[in-house]
Each structure stands twice: as structure tokens, then as C-alpha cells.
Recover the amino acids of this structure.
């Protein structure tokens, strides 16, 4: 049987470095009864060591050839394969069946990493933790501090919902084929409900999106029609500042001030 070739349309770069694999499995420190979901298992670099430590593993995979490979290699009793697009997958179904929270891991395709992170954030209340391999630049944006050039919509929306930590950087040669970018393993821990203080999270998200839609504009222009200058002043925010100068807490305060 011919070896599987990585498909560009799925953004496939298979992890092959044994040390990196061991490190990720070590970061996870799974317990046998954990409900773990792997996104994009590929050829099983993480799948195999996880199955050695777990009673059962769930994987989400879109590539039919890889699905067939996994079905041949692993018994159905230890591995459940969910065929389909992770961007459309309802993780709530798995959490409901588990009667507990999910642990999610994956070497995420670079071409869908940002929308996938937003999709997963909507299930944060059902998740224990997440460990992902991502493009280094994406992780830098995720954990960026206010005022930095990397701080943006992704930073605000993920920092509102998660505590995040970059765990280790990974060079291109750890993959086959090697990507043209550096990678980073990141851990995301959902914040407890009492820290999620936005009264209307839809309004909060819309406000953040509008503020960063044209990030070079001053707030009085980027939020024109949504927020009055007097409302900014009442919160101690200068109308001449730009979105990246506000903290996550500032955006929450601003969104809450728009509530009747």
C-alpha cells in the first residue's frame, strides 16, 4: 500500500519528531478514564501514545484515506472516529455523553486554525483543557499583551475565555512535509464562569470585531455609530486611542456600559 501523501487542501503537516511527540503527551498527562478528543489525528503520531494511556480516544478527521488508515490500524473498541469537518463538529454531543468535560488536543491545520479556535471557544464551558500545535505567529497573537502589534481580535476573544500558555516552540523539521513557518504548542484552560463578566457576550464580540476591523483607526472612528465619545470618556478611555491599546477588561467594561 502506498504511503499517504500530505494534502495541501487539508493543510496537512504530519508530526514526526519523537521528542516533540513525547513532550506533548507529557504536557497532557492524561488519566486512563479521561474523555480526550484529538482533532486531525493524521497518521497517528499522537493517537498511538494516547491510546496506550487511555481507555478510549475520540478523533475528528476529514480525510477519508486517513480514516481508512486509522480503521485498519486501531480496533473500534478503543478508538471512535468522527468523520467530518472539525469546524462543523458539535463537541457538546461528546461532552453530554461523557457527563463531564472534554480534553481536546491536536496538531491543527494552519489554514483553519483561527476559525477553529473561535468555534471551540463556543464550547469552553464543556472543556477541561486544550493543547494544540499551532503556527507560532498565531500563538503570539493569542497571548499578546495590550499595546503590542500582535494584540488583536483573536487576543481579546480568547483571553476573555481562556488562560493560555505557550509551552514549547517546534521547528519546521519536526514535520513531514516541513512547513515554512515555526510552530508552538499552547495550552488553553477555560476561565471559571465568575470571571466571564460580559453581560451580553454577543454585544461584546461585536464591539471587539468592530474595533479591530480597521485597527489603525481611532476608537471614535472605528466605533462610530456604536459608542459615543462621552461614553468612552465616562470609562476613562480616550476617543483618540486605538483598539490595541485597550485591555480585555476595558472591552468588557465598554460592552457592559452599552447595556440598559
Amino acid at each position: 500500500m502506498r504511503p499517504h501523501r500530505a494534502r495541501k487542501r487539508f493543510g496537512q503537516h504530519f508530526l514526526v519528531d519523537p521528542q516533540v511527540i513525547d513532550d506533548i503527551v507529557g504536557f497532557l498527562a492524561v488519566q486512563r478514564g479521561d474523555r480526550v478528543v484529538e482533532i486531525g489525528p493524521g497518521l497517528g503520531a499522537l493517537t498511538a501514545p494516547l491510546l496506550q494511556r487511555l481507555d478510549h480516544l475520540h478523533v475528528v478527521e476529514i480525510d477519508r484515506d486517513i480514516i481508512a488508515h486509522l480503521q485498519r490500524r486501531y480496533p473500534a473498541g478503543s478508538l471512535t472516529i468522527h468523520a467530518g469537518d472539525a469546524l462543523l463538529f458539535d463537541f457538546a454531543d461528546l461532552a453530554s455523553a461523557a457527563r463531564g468535560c472534554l480534553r481536546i488536543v491536536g496538531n491543527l491545520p494552519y489554514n483553519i486554525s483561527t476559525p477553529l479556535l473561535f468555534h471551540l471557544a463556543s464550547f469552553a464551558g464543556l472543556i477541561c483543557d486544550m493543547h494544540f500545535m499551532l503556527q507560532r505567529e498565531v500563538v503570539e497573537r493569542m497571548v499578546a499583551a495590550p499595546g503590542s502589534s500582535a494584540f488583536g481580535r483573536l487576543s481579546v476573544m480568547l483571553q476573555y475565555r481562556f488562560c493560555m500558555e505557550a509551552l514549547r516552540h517546534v521547528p519546521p523539521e519536526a514535520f513531514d512535509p516541513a512547513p515554512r513557518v515555526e510552530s508552538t504548542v499552547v495550552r488553553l484552560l477555560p476561565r471559571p464562569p465568575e470571571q466571564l463578566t460580559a453581560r451580553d457576550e454577543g454585544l461584546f464580540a461585536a464591539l471587539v470585531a468592530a474595533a479591530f476591523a480597521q485597527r489603525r483607526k481611532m476608537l471614535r472612528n472605528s466605533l462610530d455609530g456604536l459608542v459615543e465619545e462621552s461614553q468612552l470618556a465616562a470609562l476613562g478611555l480616550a476617543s483618540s486611542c486605538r483598539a490595541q491599546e485597550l485591555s480585555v477588561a476595558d472591552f468588557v467594561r465598554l460592552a457592559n456600559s452599552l447595556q440598559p
Summary: DSSP finds eleven helices and nine strands in the chain. The radius of gyration is 20 Å.
